[in-house]
Write a structure and sequence with these properties.
It is a single chain. 5% of the residues lie in helices and 46% in strands. The chain is mainly β.
Length: 123
């Protein structure tokens, strides 16, 4: 499984970003997998922030981003997205996509994930 994130950068508080994650790899069928976004701030542990069902598109969000984030996917393109609005300084961190739902990400470190894309929110 190969997951490659893009779209991070430096943004001012109140700004927006759209992160992308491209899934590929032999034997990896993107369309049948729950997918998540998570982040890790400097010196802190991994924080799961959103997941999306593989078929019906149902989504769940962490309280820290609820109302400001939208996770979406394009199964035909094997792409996962995260739209982040009204960014805060505390949203700074390394954002990565992962194969699996919230339960997978919070209960184990043994899941497929990308290397991440850095998001820095600063004035």
């Amino acid at each position: 499984v190969q997951l490659q994130e893009s779209g991070g950068g430096l943004v001012r508080p109140g700004g927006s970003l759209r992160l992308s994650c491209a899934g590929s790899g032999s034997g990896f069928v993107f369309r049948i997998n729950y997918m998540s976004w998570a982040r890790q701030a400097p010196g802190k542990g991994v924080e799961w922030i959103a997941d999306i069902h593989p078929r019906n598109g149902n989504t769940t969000y962490a309280d820290s981003v609820k109302g400001r984030a939208t996770i979406s996917r394009d199964n035909d393109k094997s792409m996962l997205y995260l739209q982040l609005n009204s960014l805060k300084v505390e949203d700074t961190g390394l954002y990565f996509c992962a194969r699996g739902s919230r339960k997978t990400v919070i209960s184990t470190s043994a899941y497929d994930r990308g290397r991440g894309t850095q998001v820095t929110v600063s004035s």
